[in-house]
Design goal:
By secondary structure, the protein is an all-alpha fold. Helices cover 72% and strands 2% of the residues. It has two domains: 2-194 and 211-282, no CATH class; 289-369, no CATH class.
């Protein structure tokens, strides 16, 4: 029975999958044929093209691992569809697993088509300058080596490999929301919180080697694309420098998110067994949602703004405006008294922590002079 449903849902997903692949391919081909893919010679005597626009694959893959799991689990964000799906003669976990597997297959299909169609476009574009290349080879007495096309292969597999992490994290976060809007907002909050937290730690303890941008679930995709861009595009092969600490900037956050991904899978399927349609389309009261995320995010924003500007008034302004966040959360201007108490406590506590962190930073600065 589940196999039949898998085949049915997979066939339903094919048309939007190929539409996304077609649009993605057209956009990329348009970019590389209009952005100036023209032969150049670098200082090492290699011929290269002016622009690969490989960052497009980062944007594409990040969009896919956020958008597709949202669409694949939207059946749990509408009461009518949830009642229908949850009444099917399938286990809830099996139903969810089917949707998530088909969703990731969509990611693979779309990315594969766009990636390799784009690759063919680059090769054709490079070959179309054959006469110009021959003149450059003759003029500079160099070899006609072109790009290191072989690196497209590992980049393809690594990109899809690391894409599993944000795909699962996005699915987990979105499933914890009771409605579509809350789910999207929560995804954004989960992306912002680790960045702000690491920025505050970095500023407080003067640990400037930490790059907070690598502590979001989507960070590893652009890193590997950019890294391989330096291998594919020969004129940039030395641009990274010898001081780049790959362990602290990539391996540690990657390990952290591998662990978080495993935990997310366990919790996601454990909680799915208990799912009912009762709270669907209602306010998200999960502790994985606004109850915890909102106070944490508000506090981090206040602390970060104060530490960055060293102006407490900036933090106070952000804190004062944050009351509207609670109103949006509760869907009313008449929020309970306890939320006003939480709001005031957040402002006072965050400003106090800001002062403590600034004192620590100044003390460490003086010690290191």
């Amino acid at each position: 029975m589940m196999k039949k449903y898998f085949k049915h849902h997979f066939k339903e997903s094919l048309i939007p999958t190929f539409i996304m692949a077609g649009i993605g391919s057209i956009i990329y081909l348009g970019m590389i044929f209009t952005e100036g893919l023209k032969p150049r010679v670098n200082n090492q005597g290699d011929i290269y093209l002016e622009s690969l626009s490989l960052q497009y694959f980062s944007v594409l893959l990040i969009a896919l691992v956020i958008i597709i799991p949202i669409f694949q689990t939207n059946y749990l964000k509408d009461k009518k569809s949830a009642d229908l799906y949850l009444s099917l003669p399938f286990k809830k976990n099996e139903l969810l697993l089917t949707h998530l597997l088909i969703g990731f297959i969509q990611v693979v299909i779309v990315f594969t088509i766009v990636y390799w169609v784009g690759f063919v476009g680059v090769v054709i574009n490079f070959a179309s300058y054959s006469d110009v290349l021959d003149k450059i080879v003759s003029l500079y007495n160099i070899s006609r080596s072109g790009y290191h096309y072989i690196y497209y292969v590992p980049l393809y597999f690594i990109s899809l490999g690391v894409a599993i992490i944000p795909y699962i994290i996005t699915s987990f976060v979105y499933l914890k929301a009771n409605n579509k809007i809350d789910g999207i907002i929560m995804i954004i909050m989960y992306l912002l919180i680790p960045v702000l937290l690491l920025e505050i730690i970095s500023q407080t303890f003067l640990i400037y080697e930490i790059d907070s941008m690598y502590y979001t679930s989507v960070s590893f995709i652009p890193f590997f694309v950019y890294k391989f861009n330096n291998l594919i595009n020969q004129n940039q092969r030395y641009s990274y420098g010898i001081n780049y600490n790959i362990f602290e900037n990539i391996l540690i956050p990657l390990l952290v998110y591998v662990v978080l991904t495993v935990v997310a899978v366990i919790i996601m399927f454990k909680d799915e067994k208990k799912r009912t349609a009762e709270n669907i389309e209602g306010i998200t009261e999960s502790y994985y949602g606004y109850k915890v995320l909102l106070p944490v995010l508000i506090s981090l924003i206040i602390i970060f703004s104060v530490m960055s500007s060293e102006m407490y008034i900036i933090g106070f302004i952000f804190g004062a405006l944050s009351i509207f966040a609670f109103m949006i959360y509760k869907r009313t201007f008449k929020i309970p008294t306890k939320y006003y108490i939480i709001w005031v406590a957040l402002i006072v506590g965050s400003l106090a922590l800001s002062a403590v962190f600034i004192e620590i930073r100044e003390a460490l600065f003086l010690m290191n002079r």
